[in-house]
Design a protein that fits this description.
Blueprint lengths: L2 H24 L11 H7 L1 H14 L3 H12 L11 E2 L3 E2 L14 H12 L8 H19 L6 H17 L6 H24 L1 H4 L13
Antiparallel strand pairs: 1-2
């Protein structure tokens, strides 16, 4: 086989790989238009309610807290990563972290999640896995630090700093992180009030969901 054929084959495989990866992003849901209203978020993506509710039933983190985390971390963008730094001010260089997807989970902790519960096919760009990850992480925070699952501000501080960092109080000298945690808590409170007025819409919207099978 000639080198030109081999090179052509490699080039074709690379193009197919790039198209495949870009296709995954293309078929992901667009970020909701009205992210400040959880009812509107779920009206655009009703399956997300089921994902968050399943995570709540499994791990205990309220739906509004899960979604407040995701709004803050990714603005509901499925494939987002931190922007690359610039070498010499203009050459795209490394990313500051491996954070990725809806929950902006970094590689080491995502690997832990996969090993413990998620499995190798879990994806940070899938809302079901993202909400399950947040529930799993917050349950671990509660177990390690004693923070209540009804305290979104301190759950977020531990999410941002890691449970070890939270226990050491690393956030205390980071006013920007504290401000963001308060914003997440405010979003969670607003989402809670909004969901109380519309949750019935999403509790029984599947073709198999009726009577006792609704998520009431």
């Amino acid at each position: 086989m000639s080198n030109s054929v081999i090179t052509s084959g490699k080039r074709g495989f690379a193009i197919m790989l790039v198209l495949g990866l870009s296709g995954c992003a293309a078929f992901s849901p667009a970020p909701p238009s009205h992210q400040d209203n959880l009812c509107e978020v779920f009206r655009e993506q009703p399956d997300w309610y089921d994902d968050a509710r399943d995570s709540y039933d499994k791990w205990g983190t309220p739906i509004w807290t899960q979604m407040a985390f995701i709004k803050r971390e990714s603005s509901y963008q499925s494939h987002i990563r931190p922007p690359r730094t610039k070498l010499w001010g203009f050459i795209p260089w490394k990313r500051p972290s491996s954070a990725y997807g809806y929950p902006q989970a970094q590689d080491p902790v995502w690997d832990e999640y996969e090993d413990e519960v998620g499995g190798v096919f879990a994806s940070r760009s899938d809302m079901q896995d993202a909400t399950d990850f947040i529930g799993w992480y917050n349950a671990r925070t509660q177990r390690m630090t004693g923070v209540s699952l009804s305290n979104p501000e301190h759950l977020y501080l531990a999410y941002h700093e890691g449970q070890g960092g939270y226990q050491r109080g690393s956030y205390r000298n980071k006013p920007a992180v504290q401000r963001v945690a308060r914003e997440v808590s405010a979003t969670a409170s607003r989402y809670r009030a909004q969901l109380s007025s519309c949750e019935a819409e999403f509790q029984c919207d599947g073709f198999f969901e009726f009577g006792p099978f609704c998520k009431a």
